[in-house]
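Section handout, structural biology tutorial.
Before the tutorial, make sure you can parse a SMILES string by hand: atoms, branches in parentheses, ring closures as digits. In the record below the ligand is flavin-adenine dinucleotide, and the chain has 412 residues. In the tutorial you will relate the predicted structure tokens back to the input. Do not try to memorize them.
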Amino acid sequence: MDFNDSKEEATFREECRAWLNDNAQRKERPDEVFGQGLSAEELMQAAREWQGRKAQAGFGAITWPEKFGGRGGSPIQEVIYRQEEGNFKVPVGAFNVSLGMVIPSFFVHTKSDAAKQHVHDALHGKELWCQLLSEPGAGSDLGMIRTKAERCTDGREGWIINGQKVWTTLAQFADCGLVLTRTDPDVPKFAGMTTFYVDMDAEGVEICPIRQANGEAEFNEVFFNDVFVPDEQRVGDVGAGWKVTLTGLMNERLSIGGVIPPELWRTTMKHMQESEMTDGSSALNDAQMRQQLSNLYLDAQGLWLLQCRGLTALGQGREPGAELSVAKIVGARTLQDFSYFAMDLKGTGGILTAEDLGDSWRLVEQLWMGAAGMRIAGGTDEIVKNNVGERVLGLPPEPRTDKGKTYKELLV
Ligand SMILES: Cc1cc2nc3c(=O)[nH]c(=O)nc-3n(C[C@H](O)[C@H](O)[C@H](O)COP(=O)(O)OP(=O)(O)OC[C@H]3O[C@@H](n4cnc5c(N)ncnc54)[C@H](O)[C@@H]3O)c2cc1C
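Predicted structure of the complex:
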């Protein structure tokens, strides 16, 4: 395992740092969050502008091939850029799905003439793309999606889509989306699906934001009511929708499991010092509280070492192995435990009074609300554990009741 940058990595880090110093404002405190007080629309606009500037400077899509406007860089360079960007007050995350998963499957599989312009516009933040996979009855098992696309029977060269998607991140701001549909129910479930790209303002597309506990609406329900899509917006062959989807899901591996932000650690320690037990003494003097904090510290350190292993593999041009699956489970759970612990220090009124505690609590609050979602997105804990069991530990596979059956047979 190698904790240090190689010579090339150190040079690249310097390049990133220099550009960021010239183009962005450094955070005054590590726990400073971009966009305090901005509306969701204003945050999105700021994210689009920042993405545009990054793309101009060659940092917009570091791992994409040059022929699609990327830098042709390595995954480790992407990680280095993100580490450096984390020190600056800039909008992060809004383009993760669009540029990290959706557009890479689009440019690999599309034959559309309009693709070049779309890829360019997405890279430069002019277009945001969303991922329309999950449905009310299909999430972990996407093979069971019901949204259907049927060939037009009125002479038009295209398809009519009907159905519903759910949990679609940022659909309310998206310009286009990749939608996975059922085109043939008479073949096994993974063989009868086809992917299309749709304009999110096409007639018949209805987007309903889902209000979350924190007051934000990060996800949406998306309804398709007789939406016409020309055949040139088909991405990949008819029946190859699962292949297109897998390309996007493979790209998710770059998100490198979870890292515990150091500012969370500092905030929790500081708060522990200031919190009083019922006898008036500091929570730091309580052995049980110290033990809880030590356990979280050990989880965070273990996670950091797992991440170093993953990064070392990437840096040496190898595929990271099981460490990233394990890091995904441990990372999301530790972030949740950390924020629950920090919030509990405020007693039963913690979640009600946290917003009065100032900026340094924003991260704790965000994680308290959002960490549960991290245990679901990109594969639930149980699904990731199944994968680790079967592919890493070589345990017997889960019983499969769908083998040799068509999608239609599975519905009954
Ligand atoms: C933050 C976030 C962002 C998201 N963004 C998007 C997006 O942009 N686009 C999109 O399409 N979707 C998105 N999703 C949806 C996400 O992909 C699904 O929620 C996820 O795949 C789980 O599917 P589900 O919610 O239908 O749960 P289900 O699959 O119904 O699972 C329910 C429960 O059963 C368990 N379970 C299911 N199958 C098994 C099994 N074989 N063995 C053991 N346990 C099992 C699960 O672990 C879970 O606990 C997002 C979700 C989150 C939380």
